[in-house]
Amino acid sequence: NAGVTQTPKFRILKIGQSMTLQCTQDMNHNYMYWYRQDPGMGLKLIYYSVGAGITDKGEVPNGYNVSRSTTEDFPLRLELAAPSQTSVYFCASSSRASADNEQFFGPGTRLTVL
Amino acid sequence: GDSVTQMEGPVTLSEEAFLTINCTYTATGYPSLFWYVQYPGEGLQLLLKATKADDKGSNKGFEATYRKETTSFHLEKGSVQVSDSAVYFCALSDFNSGNTPLVFGKGTRLSVIA
Q: Is residue A106 within 8 angstroms of chain B, CB to CB?
């Protein structure tokens, strides 16, 4: 049981490049989330999903896209990377069956856009 | 909307000192409350939680009591160790009101020196 896994761990992009951050969970959780954490700041929600085929915007969705074709996977796509997207990205998941929505986090992807 | 306010850091303590990190919240419903910890270079881990008023969450010597009358969930530890150095996030889930994502505070960085 690996929990929530994210790849890659680190990435450097040039302005205008695109990439996909991968997130997979093996806990059969319905809900999945993408957050970004800027230096010295808390977490901001980018997108979330309450089940396969359903996604919704969070607080800071601009410049990102997501899809949820399976319960396990929730990739985050950056189409035209900008320096403002330099951040640490965390994926998380939680169970619909949970009474309190405890979330489980992956180890993060550190992205630098130059 | 829902929000979490926690004391700004950084907090620097000597080993065996008493720790308090203040957290207050606003919510439309009856939220569950969480403290997450982030060790250097890692993702967030759940430290403790409380799901209703007057509940006390505890783990690894840390405690926090859900105070509805003061809308607070302060984190305490009687004797900190160097290994407690991390960033601590207070969060709430207004799950029963239909809001799925967690709402996080900005985090408080704790440094414990020997």
A: yes
